[in-house]
Amino acid sequence: MNARTKAGLQILQVAVVIGILGNLLLRVAPWGLNVLLFNAAFAAGMIGLLRRHKPEYLTAQTYALFGAQVFFSAMFVLRDSVELRVADSVAIIAILSVLFVPKMRTTTRLAGVFQYAVAFLWSIFSAFFAPFALVFNDIEWVSIERTGWSKHAFSVFRGLAIATPILLIFGALFVAADAVYESWVQRVFNIEPAVLFTHLLLTSIFAWFSAGYLRGVMIDWAVAIPLRVTPTEAEGRVSVAGPIRSKVEDLRTDAAESSPVLPNNLSILEHINLSDPPNPKAETRAAGSVSSSDASAEGPKNENEPKEKWDWQKFDNTVMPTAFTLGSVEIGVILGLTNLLFLSFVIVQVPYLFGGMDLVQNTPDFKLADYARRGFGELVAVSALVLPILLASHWLIRKDSPLATTLFRVFAGIQIGLLFVIMASAGQRLVLLTGNLGYGLTTIRLYPMIFMLWLALVFVWFSITVLRGARQHFAWGALWSAFLILGATHILNPDAFIVKTNIALMQQGREFDATYNSRLSNDALPVLIDSFDELNSEDKKYVLINIGQRYCSLNEKADLRSWSIARRNAYSALLLREGALMHFGECIGTRFAYPRQ
């Protein structure tokens, strides 16, 4: 068994275990502890395979990525917000994609955004199609040694295949013959076909994708063709060897075969003293040059010499025609005009950007929602579009144009400065929209603001790395800045923060949207329940209606796989208002019926 076959078999074993765990853990909703357990098992299995077959991949960066994967899967236990769970899922997928980067013969710390994108596509392709290569190419099934139980495994499976229809026929006859035996069989084999099918389907899906992903990381795509000698060739080689002779006879034969034959029957001494004929080509060629005959004497080039492999780390715009790259003129025109547009917007719209409530109150037929909500969305979009434009422009700069590089640094720095002014304006609009004269805080207002804060951090990192000629460090830092912001968002607990902010505004005289705030995730329920007595009777009614359904769902015996801290805290808070809920309505199964029947 060669190393490739051994690695393939171990990948299959790990994939089957992951498939079984995925079916047993993730088939239960809502997700909680099961996501953490599954990701921890996946990371442990992958680390074990890497230690055996790719130990050079286990760097500090790789361990950090595995730690981040386990951390974001643990957040399914801590938080219940849908938005946070989507962000955690995206983060885990991004981590699994970045783990493919070492496969491109580059390090995760020095890879660029383009390499990360290629790694993502490569991981998706491997997850879907690599199992075919694993089963039909990597594993040489005929070379597997069959000892112990594996020696008789095929016979066992064959016997089961033959015995199954026989057992079914006789079993059906026995069931039809006796009612007591029939009831006993129904109790023992109480398995619904649909449930069995879903178990097999989920196990197969998780095992397939896991095998493809792990194969893509562990094994190269090159097809190794083993050298095989046919029996006929082996016999021919034996016959050529001839009879066995002594060492003395071998030396005599070699001396007779290797004795030189000189022209004209000259002796060796006469042949050495014989002068060479004149060579006109040798007399006329330049000193230090090599004649064609001499060059040919060196022998033909070996076509089997290893060719230079593709280096993803050195991938740049030199692979593109010059027409698709940017020189100093193009950079000056593109970024110069963009900066003029940004500058004109900032200068002309200064009163509009930073006018605040005075502008809203002094402008007829101008509402706060029109000023803040409309401007905030557009300015966040502008901030998000600047980053890919700057990255693409920098990548397309011609390597032989230092002036273009200098112009880019100047114009990009100006553009980032103008962008910070626009982002500050967007932040002020959000403060006005959610302040004591605004309309309160919602998820569609808070999360774009968090995203813009991350963009501000990324632009600072862009200035430190790309503008200073260290682009290779940008993607790794931007990735971890996203992880940092996402982790801080979990600490903030957005849904609880939204309810807390809106209740504070209610205490200042603003209207409280009881329906919206009570429909937020379980993360917000403890804060809402604590402030329940401060609500008016109408708001209390809407809150009880919306949280009653959640109380009935949480009151049911939950599966341990779905356990989470957020749901436990929410249920504990609901128990404090159990009397009011039961006075207002009642649980019929998992449904909350009101008014009480």
Concise synopsis of the structure shown:
The chain has 597 residues and is mostly helical. It contains 26 helices and 2 strands.
Mind telling me the C-alpha Rg?
A: 37 Å
Question: How do the strands of the widest beta sheet line up side by side?
Answer: 1-2
Termini distance? 72 Å
How many domains, in number, for the residues?
3
* Helix and strand pattern: HHHHHHHHHHHHHHHHHHHHHHHHHHEE
Largest sheet: 2 strands, antiparallel
* Total beta-strand segments: 2
Question: Helix/strand-derived class?
Answer: mainly alpha
Query: So what's the oligomer here?
Result: single chain
Write the layout of secondary structure elements.
Layout: H1 3-26, H2 33-53, H3 60-78, H4 82-98, H5 113-138, H6 153-177, H7 179-188, H8 193-218, H9 231-241, H10 247-258, H11 268-273, H12 280-284, H13 292-297, H14 328-348, H15 350-354, H16 356-362, H17 368-395, H18 402-434, H19 443-465, H20 474-492, H21 494-507, H22 514-518, H23 525-530, H24 537-555, H25 565-576, H26 578-584, E1 586-588, E2 591-593
Antiparallel strand pairs: 1-2
Helix pairs in contact: 1-2, 1-8, 2-3, 3-4, 4-5, 4-20, 5-8, 6-7, 14-18, 17-18, 17-19, 18-19, 19-20, 24-25
Describe what you observe in this structure.
The protein is mainly α and 597 residues long. It has 3 domains: 3-145 and 189-218, no CATH class; 324-492, no CATH class; 499-593, no CATH class. The chain contains 26 helices and 2 strands. A two-stranded antiparallel ribbon has the order 1-2. Helix 4 packs antiparallel against helix 20, helix 14 runs parallel beside helix 18 and helix 18 runs antiparallel to helix 19 (443-465). It is flat. Mean pLDDT is 82; it is low at 223-244, 254-258 and 280-299.
